[in-house]
Amino acid sequence: MADFDIHILGCGSALPTTRHLPTAQVINLRDKLFMIDCGEGAQLQMRRMRIRFSRITHIFISHSHGDHCFGLPGLISTLGMLGRKGDLFIYGPEEIGTYIQNILDTFCRGMEYQVIFHPVNTQESQIVMEDRSVTVRSIPLKHRIPCCGYLFEEKPKEAHIIRDMIDFYHVPVKDIQHIKQGEDFITEEGEIIPNCRLTRPAEPPRRYAFCSDTAYDPSIIPLVENVDLLYHEATFAEADLPRAQETFHSTARQAAEIAKAAHVKKLLIGHYSARYEHLDDIQREATAVFPQTLLAEEGMSIRL
Q: How much is the pTM?
């Protein structure tokens, strides 16, 4: 099966600590690299994790709080110094476009590549990017400023040919592609050979949902239902629920409740508040509701 890997560069929240870096992730999907958020230190983390960030072509920013986008100026500049030629596409709320333009005007004049910004509507779920291997949809989130998550949906793969059956029915090479796409085969004698006799189903498409930052919001449940992996912020423990509500963030228990209601396969929590030196309570509260919960850590890679 082709790669679908989630690399965690940073999983802390706004205040810097020596324990966690600000939010940033890289997805490797069929050897294409996509970035979600770009907090400070993202470049160094990609170096440490041996991620060839020059191959990143699409960056998805959730919102314009600094811990999710302060790494962009350095990354854009570095790509220019490395001699990048191909376009870099960045997606995010409208405010991110203004921020990027200021970066380009101030620090990145004369680069040999173009930075192309696509504004994302944070009020409704829409397809924001699509190619042959993936569809990326926005997920409206409930935060203090316009904010959205992203759902990465792998495109369905073609069925697997059963070579022995292809040989047995003397299927011409010109017909094999049609059979992969689901068509039956008709022999020279007019016999219809059903597709299921000639192929094995492909592996089901995989789906990854990223939801940070957000208050507890059950309206996202239909958008992330049955995903293979849900990343949901868990900034606070339940004892700090009033603070979570005040700042439009979630507790670990609330993240787990979303995962349970959406019937996701696994939950990955992160965006931890700097107030917690240890995450035992965070993990305990989430797993009590949804046992298939993982704690995000810098340097972690998860294969779907």
A: 0.89
